[in-house]
Amino acid sequence: MIRWLFVVLFLSLSNAADAKLGYFRFPSLHGDLVTFTAEGDLWSVPVAGGKATRLTTHHALEYRKAISPDGTKIAFNAAYEGETEVWLMPIDGGLPQRLTFEGHYMQVQGWTPDGKVLCSTGRYSGPTRNLQLVEIDPDSFSQELLPLHQASEGVWNDDKSTLFFTRFNRQSSYTKRYKGGTAQNLWKWSPGAEEAVLLTADYPGTSRYPMWSNGRVYFVSDRDGTMNIWSMNPEGGELNQQTEHEGFDVHEPSLHDGRIVYQLGADLHLYDIATDTDRIIEIELVSDFEQTREKWITDPTSQIHDVAISPNGDRIALVSRGRMFVTPVKEGRIQEVSRRKGVRYRDVAFAKDGKSLLALSDESGEYEFWEFDLEEIDKRNQITHDGEVLRNGAVISPDGKRFLWQDKNLKLWVYDFGSRETSLIASSRNGSFSGLDWSPDSKWIAYSVNADNDFAQIWLYDVENHARHVLTSDRIDAHDPAWSADGNRLFFIVDQNLSSEVSSPWGMRQPEPFFDNVSLIYELPLKTGLRSVFEEPNEATRRVNPPIGQFLSSLVEKGQPFNLRNLALRMKKAPVPPGNYSSLKATAQNLFFTHRE
Questions:
Q1: Within a 10 A sphere around the Cβ of 44, how many other Cβ atoms?
Q2: pTM given for the model
């Protein structure tokens, strides 16, 4: 008995492992046939499930399909000839026929009861590109615009006396439980009526994908926290929830003959209205799965996404397609670091002694910082063990004792190699941190982050005392801080040159002010008594203020802490013309920065 149980279990697991599963999207239902998108192509499968039939093979994406009322044709979006347009093809496959020649956004929404293709387009709304609904005759190619502003999805009732439509296009980030100003809502409109009627005024969140069946409007809404299928009467009343999924949202539903097919996660579901039952459509793809075949990369240098230079400049660390390499600047052997199958590396940095690398690796299941020995192949050590969200690469302190990074939760962290502790430096509510730069003595960190009004400010963090100090006002953007070589000054960029390219007065027909070359570079001495490095030294000041790059010889100056009072009075503008500057760096004798034309 146990042996037979083992055999059955083995065969079940083998069949499950051999199943050709896929990621199924954009379903359309007609009778007992479902069409959908997988591997970028159109497929069809019975509602009972089973092996699917591929209908298209073009290398671009075919999607947003809808089956005609008579069940003979499919309207869909495709890019057979460059631009994405609306195409028609027989339900059983065949040569597609191009239906539109717009050259820009035109998306299939469904069919009308009298056999026209209903699409959304921005063609007729001018420069605003607000969506409107248009009906396209598949025989004459003629288009009829429906007089509805910002209508993106729609469905007619059976006798085409009432259109139920969605106002606004979908919220592009798919934010959960979005209730902002562009949340989609459902309306109805009858030809000849002066005004459309709002049906979902009771809920400030999203209501979309209108469908019509047997005197009721079916739609998708996140009223319970997850996008589920709901229904209501044509007046917006008698609300009823049809599905009760949690987590994954319902997407792209299609209704025909009292049944709704929709996407949930990677699967297609079939919901029967009359019996109130829901099930997964088990689909098997018959394909060569070209996208999974092993391929040779003939030019890996074209896919390099991380570069780091060794401390003495003799080697370069590279990451290409998640694999990590070290190559000499001159002649020598290219060394792959840590050849581990199925592990991806990124954001590589040399340790200060040049004998090891610090990089992010997903070997543990989360992106963590690992250290890799360059003298002993595949010797590695996991540094952090608390990864919960995506992190950015490490910025190592000049003394090599700490490194800092930020994560996707908009938090800035520092790690201490000695204590093996991670400390939170700062959190942001308005974007990521930028311009991360250690002071030469590794005791201070300078960075830029947006204030509550979205203007960037320069901050200092005292590593030893765990204290933060803001250096610039929130009245104007200041970013890309860079320490001087002696550690006594900060240079940074201020977007302060607000000179419009449009002459004044602008007038009613003039565009808004256009500001170019807004950036200026400033120097901020952090100790009192320092003159600007941009001033020519004279006999009176030469002794107390050596050139940039040389540490002050005065014993008093060596022991003097930073004076962070009255900073605005000490700021000096660099003798550099205004530009569009970023990525500021300082050395003993020069400032380096990029300029965007």
A1: 20
A2: 0.66
Task: Return the amino acid letter for 242.
Answer: Q
Give me 47's structure tokens. 């509602």
Contact 146, 155 (CB under 8 A): no
DSSP secondary structure letters along 381-435: EE------S-BPPPEE-TTSSEEEEEBTTSEEEEEETTTTEEEEEEE-SSS--EE
At 329, list the tokens: 């600047």
Q: In the chain, what's the furthest Cα-to-Cα distance?
A: 102
What is the chain's pLDDT, residue by residue, as a tens digit (597 residues)? 334 333 333 334 434 444 467 999 999 999 999 999 999 999 999 999 999 999 999 999 999 999 999 999 999 999 999 899 999 999 999 999 999 998 878 999 999 999 999 999 998 887 777 899 999 999 999 999 999 999 999 999 999 999 999 999 887 777 889 999 899 999 999 999 989 999 999 999 999 999 999 999 999 999 999 999 999 999 999 999 999 999 999 999 999 999 999 999 999 999 999 999 999 999 999 888 888 888 888 888 888 999 999 999 999 999 998 999 999 999 889 999 988 889 999 999 999 999 999 999 999 999 999 999 998 877 899 999 998 899 999 999 999 999 999 999 999 999 999 999 999 999 999 999 999 999 999 999 999 999 999 999 999 999 999 999 999 989 989 999 999 999 999 999 999 888 777 666 555 556 667 778 999 999 999 887 788 888 876 655 554 444 333 322 232 334 456 777 767 677 889 999 999 999 999 998 999 999 988
491 and 521 in contact (C-beta within 8 Å)? yes
Angstrom distance (rounded) from CA 526 to CA 486:
11
Query: Residue 138 region, left (φ>0) first, then alpha (ψ -120 to 50), else beta?
Result: alpha
Given a contact cutoff of 8 angstroms between Cβ atoms, the answer to whether 44 and 53 are in contact is yes
Partners of residue 260 on adjacent β-strands: 255, 271
The full DSSP string for 424-456 is EEEE-SSS--EEEEE-TTSSEEEEEEE-TTS-E
